[in-house]
């Protein structure tokens, strides 16, 4: 059974930083493309970043501020977020899959990020 468990969400002021983590189990993490998605209040789930074996991809809204990475030895996916903005307030989800197939795949329970002053 695929299991994904996100952590690291918190309240932070605009301009601040956070690092989200997602521990994966139940599949071969090292061979799997992974995605971060988020759902802002009142909006649909939105793809923001994906990582393959070495390649990384970002939505325009986060490019240059967020960095996706992975540690295959720890079965863990990361999202480092810098220069956070109020519009980054959302529940962030770790999703199995890439930017083309993530919507229909398993995801974790999410972790809440709140950016406000």
Radius of gyration: 13 Å
Helicity, in percent? under 10%
In DSSP terms (H or I, runs of 4 or more residues), the helix count works out at: 0
Give the overall form: globular
Structure classification: mainly beta
Task: Give the CA-CA distance, first to last residue.
Answer: 40 Å
> Strand content of the residues, in percent?
over 45%
Q: What do the pLDDT scores average to?
A: 97
Major β-sheet, in short?
Answer: 6 strands, mixed
Please tally the β strands and state the result: 10
Order of helices and strands: EEEEEEEEEE
Strand order of the largest sheet: 2-10-9-4-5-6
Q: Can you tell me the residue ranges where pLDDT is under 50 for at least 5 consecutive residues?
A: none
Brief summary:
By secondary structure, the protein is mainly β. The protein is 0% helix and 47% strand. A hairpin with a 5-residue loop joins strand 4 (34-39) and strand 5.
Describe this structure as you would to a colleague:
By secondary structure, the chain is an all-beta fold. It is built from no helices and ten strands. The chain has strands at 3-7, 11-12, 18-25, 34-39, 45-51, 56-58, 66-71, 76-81, 90-96, 111-115. The strands form two sheets. A six-stranded mixed β-sheet has the order 2-10-9-4-5-6, with no helix packed on it. A four-stranded antiparallel β-sheet has the order 1-3-8-7, with no helix packed on it. It is globular, with a radius of gyration of 13 Å. The mean pLDDT is 97.
């Amino acid at each position: 059974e695929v299991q994904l468990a996100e952590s690291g969400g918190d309240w932070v002021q605009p301009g601040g930083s956070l690092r989200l983590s997602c521990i994966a189990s139940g599949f071969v993490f090292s061979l799997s493309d992974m995605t971060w998605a988020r759902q802002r209040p009142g909006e649909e789930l939105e793809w923001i970043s994906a990582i393959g074996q070495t390649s990384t991809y970002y939505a325009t809204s986060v490019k240059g501020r967020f960095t996706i990475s992975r540690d295959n030895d720890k079965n863990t996916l990361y999202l480092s977020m810098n220069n956070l903005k109020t519009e980054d307030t959302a529940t962030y989800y770790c999703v199995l899959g890439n930017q083309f197939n993530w919507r229909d795949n398993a995801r974790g329970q999410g972790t809440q990020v709140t950016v406000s002053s």
